[in-house]
Amino acid sequence: MCGFVGQVSGYKISDEQLSSLDLAAKSIKFRGPDYVGRWTSLKKNVAIIHNRLSILDITKSGNQPMQSSNNRFVLAYNGELYNYLEIKKKISRDFTNVKWNGTSDTEVFLKSIEYYGLDYSLKIFNGMFSFSLWDNQNNILFLGRDLIGEKPLYYSYINNNFYFSSQIRCFKSLGINLDIDVKALQLYLNLNYIPSPYSIFKNVKKLSPGSILKYDFNTNKIDIKKFRKIKFDQKENNNNSIDSLDKILHEVIEQQLVADVPVGIFLSGGLDSSLVASIASKVSTKKIQTFCISQKNKNYDESNISNLVSKKLNTEHKNILIDKNNILDASERISEIYDEPFSDSSQIPSIILCKEVSQYGKVFLTGDGGDEIFGGYNRYIYINLFNNLIKKIHPYIRKKIKVLLKLISSLDLTLLNKLFFKFYQNFNNKLLKISHVIDLNNSISIYKNLIINFNTGKFLKENINIENYFLNGSIFANENINDVEKFMLQDINTYLPDDIFVKTDRASMYFSIETRSPLVDKRIIEFTEKINLDQKIKGFNNKMLIRELLKKYIPSEIINKKKMGFGLPLDDLIRNELKDFTVSSLKDLEKIDIPFVNFNEVNYMMKLHFEKKKNYSYELWNLVILSSWYRKFYSD
Questions:
Q1: Which of 145, 196, 232, 431 has CB atoms 3.0–4.6 Å from 208's, for a disulfide?
Q2: What pLDDT, on the 0 to 100 scale, is given for residue 485?
Q3: Neighbours of 602 (CB within 10 A)
Q4: How far apart are CA 128 and CA 147, in angstroms?
């Protein structure tokens, strides 16, 4: 994994601007601490700096920016090309006198573009990546991001200068205007993250997954297009889906275990990571190292299940204990690691895990993406249940049920959660969420109300229309797929790249390690596009195919154990271990002029939360992280 920053200017780049680029590159040195490479065009109007984390071909022949043999292209690349050996053989077979300087996937990435062109190369590439490609011949810059959005890429065009970078913090060093985007801030307060193409700054955008940006220096024109879209409307009959998935996963995981450095696995004990670890232990020639977070709060502790899985698979297993000290340490690091507001609370165990495992290796496989690709979220079960049962209930009765659910969810939090925790974490919040959607009739409104922080409206004097700024209307208007698949596609396009992969990429890269996600490999995505929905969701059961396949490797009693979810008891932490951090952060935030936030209401919500009369943990944590981000951004 790596990081890069660059500039294409309408003028000669000055020494002062080059120094600014150097500072920007230094700010993301943790993404690539092994080597810093610089390239500047002959006219001094293009400059690119690359920080390298050496994974494949750790010699200097893999250093970047890398120039093609014909001097036409200059590549800065962040990621891994998993099928680079196949493509390398193809190039050597299709063309004569091809000279290879090393064994890196970067060289294969660049040579493929040199010999086949960018469009064809993107069709055959299988990997996780973001890249910049400067075309010396035509004075054109290309930026690209992988299909699923595992690797980040930001850009800005201002005052006849085009800037790009792996992380948004780089733009602070470049001297451009960084006014806050109010709409992006409102999106954050509703969602816990800022979705593509927005960023916290008006002048900086995220490149969306599966996209290519073309900046023509000659005309100053910017074009963005999708090179591939994920679709669920091309089903094929496959009576051997379990065996087919098993075969593909063997190929994928064997390929993703390839590295010139030690490789481990994040094993939570959930279905996805257990499947990855199971197959990895079969295909690896070495004993697999696995790692899991453990907690003193047994309602959230996953280590018992992961220990059982590890014992069955005979892995070398390590549990990493979460305690008050590392929770506080991780919380205080959040705005250093996530350089725009981001408040998915599972960021805390992610930071702790990545920090601890960095002493054991450089590459780690995860189960990320399994929920979105194979149907793992409760909202998929709900919309399936809604279409098959709830919408058949008379609207009058549904409204009465809504009132009843709101009444029940307002009862004593401690009592409700104690009674029902063994079935659902945060039971009262789940009831309240269902009460917000049970009387709705269209899928887009149901999805919106299931995923937003619905109490945010209590303290926002003005709010954003989520449907206009966030939801993909073309997905929900597609009559060739059902509502469950619409929910899944929306999550794949937004929640997965802008929350899940942001969480993992920033935490891992901050500690200079690389994470890989086999379950979102291109071959797996192509497979899941074609299988029927009942192989993902059936009744109250999710991930049907994953469950059936996993039975080949571990006992059913382990598979059927309740999964805790990769998280923390945030509501209790805010009342206890993080109480001082929360109070001081909200006081600091109140001093900042945010005209659309009602701080009297915020303080009242905090009071009710501390008294255990309400659970406002998500809304309060959003504001805490926003305050922390403001302090970090404006103090540096």
A1: 196
A2: 95
A3: 19
A4: 8
Residue whose token pair is 């307060």: 189
Question: Is residue 142 classed exposed, middle or buried when 0-12, 13-18 and 19+ CB atoms within 10 A define those classes?
Answer: middle
Measure the CA–CA gap between 359 and 104, rounded to whole angstroms: 24
Amino acid at 539: G
Residue reference for tokens 């090393």: 102
Q: HEC string of 211-264?
A: EEEEEECCCCEEEEEECCCCCCCCCCCCCCHHHHHHHHHHHHHHHHCCCCCCEE
pTM score of the predicted model:
0.94
Residue 12 structure tokens = 């000669």
Crossing angle (nearest 10°) for helices 483-490 and 378-388 = 160
> Phi and psi of 117, rounded to 5°?
90, 160
**How much is the mean pLDDT over the chain?**
91
Give the model's confidence band at 593: pLDDT under 50 very low, under 70 low, under 90 confident, else very high.
Answer: confident
Q: Are 408 and 508 in contact (CB under 8 A)?
A: no
List the alpha helices (DSSP H) in 518-593.
Answer: 522-530, 544-550, 556-559, 570-575, 579-590
Angle value at C-alpha 621, between 618 and 623, nearest 5 degrees: 115
CA dihedral sign of residues 170, 171, 173, 178: negative
Per the CB < 8 A criterion, the answer to whether 153 and 209 are in contact is: no
Per residue in 490-538, pLDDT (tens digit) is 999 999 999 999 999 999 999 999 999 999 999 999 999 999 998 999 8
Let me know: does 362 contact 264? Beta carbons within 8 Å.
no
Q: Which pair of tokens denotes residue 316?
A: 């070398």
Place of tokens 């109250």: 540
For 30, half-sphere exposure in the C-beta direction (CA atoms, 13 angstrom radius) is 17
Order of strands across the sheet with 363-365?
316-322, 289-295, 263-266, 363-365, 514-516
CB distance 188 to 622 below 8 Å: yes
- Closest by CA to 546, choosing from 354, 351, 366, 376, is 376
Residue entry with tokens 């074009």: 223
Written as six digits, the tokens of 416 are 């409700």
Rounded-to-integer distance, Cα 470 and Cα 195, Å:
7
